Amino acid sequence: MKKAALDARDRAIIDALLEDSRASQQSLAARAGITAPAVRERIRRLEDEGVIEGFTIEVATRSLGYTLEAIVRIEPLPGKLHIVERALQDTPEVIQCDTVTGDDCFIARMVLRDIQDLNRLLEPLHDKARTNTNIVKGNPVPRRRPPF
After folding, report:
1. Residues 4, 86: Cα–Cα separation, whole Å
2. Span 91-117, pLDDT tens digits
3. How far apart are CA 62 and CA 41, in angstroms?
4. pTM (2 d.p.)
5. What is the mean pLDDT of residues 52-69?
6. What is the CA radius of gyration of the chain?
């Protein structure tokens, strides 16, 4: 894959969309110092080049009653990798999961209504994997774009 060349206007558009993916093309144009049609064309190009993969929202999990988040490192037992992967995919409280190198195969982020939820969510994995859990205290570095 070829590296996309981004100029200052592309970066301004991307930064503005990261702040508010619903920003109008007019406000994006003002921020980037170009016209709204030029913004529309740049966004289309950035999508075509694979720089912008989609537009999204963030859901405030607390507003839905999830007061805690946990990061769970998961090491499937021999022969259980695909079973564990399917179990994670089928658990709606798993809001993100990555496969990783090292002793663990998966790192999952789970939302919990309370600490008792943790037992309910991990219990189906006990005969299939070893787990190590950390409760999230805060996010000193929220999800952000990579450096340009």
Report:
1. 35
2. 999 999 999 999 999 999 999 999 999
3. 37
4. 0.84
5. 94
6. 20
Pairing of strands 94-99, 129-135: unpaired
DSSP string, 97-136: EEE-SSS-SEEEEEEESSTHHHHHHHGGGTTTEEEEEEE-
| H or E segment and range at residue 83 | helix 81-89
Q: How many angstroms separate the CA atoms of 102 and 92, rounded?
A: 26
Q: Which helix (DSSP H) or strand (DSSP E) does residue 48 occupy?
A: helix 36-48
Identify residue 143 by its one-letter amino acid code: R
What lies within 8 Å, CB to CB, of 26 at 6+ separation is 36
Q: How far, CA to CA in Å, does 87 sit from each of 22, 84, 111, 126? A: 34, 5, 16, 12
Contact between 26 and 36 under an 8 Å Cβ cutoff? The reply is yes
Please give the average per-residue pLDDT across 125-144, as a whole number: 95
- Looking at residue 92, its amino acid is P
The residue written with tokens 């070893």 in the block is 130
